Amino acid sequence: MIKNIKRNKREYIAPWEKAFDKVLSPLEDFIHRQTTSGVLLMLCALIALYLANSVWSEAYHKILQLPFTIGVPGFELSKSVHHWINDGLMALFFLVIGLELKREILVGELADIKQAILPVVAAIGGMIVPVIIYMSINQEGTAFDGWGIPMATDIAFALGALALLGARIPKSLLTFLVALAIVDDLGAVLVIALFYTETISFTALAIVAVVLFLLLSLNLGGIRRPTPYILLGIVLWIAMLKSGVHATLAGILLAFTIPMRPKYEPARFLQHINEMIGKIKEAYQKETNIIKNDELRSRVRALGDGVNLVQAPAQIMERSMHLPSAYIIIPIFSLANAGIPVDWSVLGDVLAHPVAVGVTTGLVAGKLLGIAGFTWLAVRLGITSLPRGLNFKHIIGVGLMGGIGFTMSIFIAELGFAHSPHDLLMAKTGILFASVIAGVTGFCWLYLTTKKAP
Question: Rounded to whole angstroms, what are the CA distances from 190 to 124, 184, 209?
Answer without folding.
Answer: 13, 10, 18
